[in-house]
Structures are given as structure tokens and as C-alpha cells.
């Protein structure tokens, strides 16, 4: 009975791949596996589609494993490179969203269509540009012109991070119509004092070319607030 079980274990094709006999030619297959002289781990293949159809790059091959019984110690930069390479080979990739879009706006005071472009979209810097045309229904609402009629609008939004705690944001909006042009600009600074405590300061300016008898009028305001996240 014991001999039958031994033949079933050693002689039958119970492995899913050929055993590499070069590493342990003097031992039976089962004993070589038990002694960890050979490995039955199947190779891992992964599809890599990280914009390869555009760049033409191919993933680099992983370095071959060390010989049996020899421990190869790589320097820290090579270990980190191999780690990031493994993450790239088995990681999933989702394409980024579109940088431009067409937006429609309709309210009781204004209807328009605008084109928005994210010119810069990085971790620390963001720049957005917006242009459009429409029709002003109610004057001086939502930073608008003085009289009803066709208008052209444009805007610019910039956000820049400095270090780990500071961020400066700037917003510019211009609308021009038949009688005047209306401009609004705001500059803000956010400073992270503590993980839950932040200081917010901003300066805003409004300019109307038709105000004050047609000579134009500029108004300014500033705010300083301390925010705490509960």
C-alpha cells in the first residue's frame, strides 16, 4: 500500500508545468520540491497599456532570480526601482478626463454658452481659461453689465501651492456688453496653521466702466477668516 502511494506521488503527472530538472537532476521531483531546490511558481504575466500605443515604449523585464542557495542583496536605489517597476506592471491605469468642455448656462438673469480649457492641471499649479457669449436679461446680477442685451464673457482662474502649507488663488471675470464692461478680480491666500486650523485672507475688486457718470467706479473689499474643521 505504501509503495502504491509513493508511485502515485512521484511517477504520475501531478504538476501543471515541466519540472526544471537542471537545478536538481539527482533528486526525484517530489523530494526536490520538498527540499526547496526547485520552485513550482508559475511566471506572472500582466498586460501593460499605459499609453503604449502612443509612446511605443515596452515594459522592462524584471532581473532574473539569483541562483539557488545564493542571496543577492541589491542597493537601496535598485530595490526601490524594482519595487516601482512591479507596481507599474501589475497596476491598473485609468485615463485622465478631458481638458476642455463646452458648458451651457441658463438663469432668469442670463443665458450663455462658454468654452472652458484646463491649460495647466498639475498637483501644485492649476490654470483654467473660460470664454463665451450670451444674452444679459437682468442688469447687474451675477457680476453683469448695466443694460440687457448680447454680452461676451471671459474668465481666468489660477491656483498655486507654495510648500506644504500655503496656497494662492486668483480669479478674474470680465463681461462686456453694449453700454459698459464689468470686471471682478479676487486674490486669496490660504495658510494651514494646524491640521484642523487654517487662515484664509482675500482681496476683491469690482470695476464698472459705466458707473459714476461714465467715468468708471472701482470698489474694493478684504476679508480675513480663521477656519477650524470639527
From TrEMBL:
InterPro entries named in the record: DUF481
Name this polypeptide is given: DUF481 domain-containing protein
Species, as recorded: Luteimonas endophytica
Source species taxonomy: Bacteria, Pseudomonadati, Pseudomonadota, Gammaproteobacteria, Lysobacterales
